[in-house]
Fold this protein.
Amino acid sequence: MAAAATARQGFRRMFSTSGSGFARPRTTLPPPKADPNPSLFVSGLSKRTTSEGLKEAFQKFGRVMHARVVTDRNSGYSRGFGFVRYETVEEAARGIEGLDGKFLDGWVIFAEYARLKYPPQQEQETAADIPPQI
């Protein structure tokens, strides 16, 4: 009789939604949006999209400094995303507004501000910058 009661408690614990049973799967939050900057991350690209084609599409909205489609090392085809760098943040905003959710090479693409690999460093105070206290 005691064994049956123990088995029932075990099943209850296994199928319970309280904290004593199995851990609930953690919900992950989406990464924070990037601050406005001249670099854009473009996703949803066709396998046939080239860096030149990406640059031509985004040049309608401002001066493109650099455009690159990330490609697979083995096949040479697009991996489906790339980066575009404009001269100013305002041009980048126009590029996002103009092509986010639009078609390029038959595929709907998405453009957003790129998350910078290294955040800009702020000036740090050194001991020489701090006035002596008298």
